Amino acid sequence: MNQQDLNIVKKQLLEEREHLQEQIHSYTEGGSSLEDSVGELTASDQHYGDLGTEQFEREKDLTLFNKQQKELEEVNHALEKIEKGEYGYDEETGEEIPTERLKAMPTARYKIKE
Questions:
Q1: Where in the chain are the domains?
Q2: pLDDT tens for residues 45-59?
Q3: Residues 78, 13 contacting (CB under 8 angstroms)
Q4: Rounded distance, CA 9 to CA 111, Å?
Q5: Where are the zinc fingers (dksA C4-type) (predicted)?
Q6: Within 10 A of 87 (CB to CB), how many other CB atoms are there?
Q7: CATH of domain 3-104
Q8: Global pTM?
Q9: Which of 2, 12, 13, 5 lies closest to 80 in space, CA to CA?
């Protein structure tokens, strides 16, 4: 991968990291964690049907939050590899990952086997 392509991919990764950090921050902004809020529901002040809906929404939010955290880890991993000069190589075989794949999926760790 040439330097120009590497700069393009790095810019994509930095933008994605900023986007993910903003989304993660919006989930935690209220001061209580999603993990804690899932267990806070009680039947004393709500109809059981509403409890189920609220529980579902909180679990959905927690799932999305965890997915975004994992995506952020992948983005940070790719940025670390760029800084170390190790970006763009299959982590199993050491073969170069095609530039087209890295542009489409900058966090790719492996070359697609043909």
A1: 3-104
A2: 566 666 677 777 788
A3: yes
A4: 16
A5: 90-114
A6: 21
A7: 1.20.120.910
A8: 0.75
A9: 13
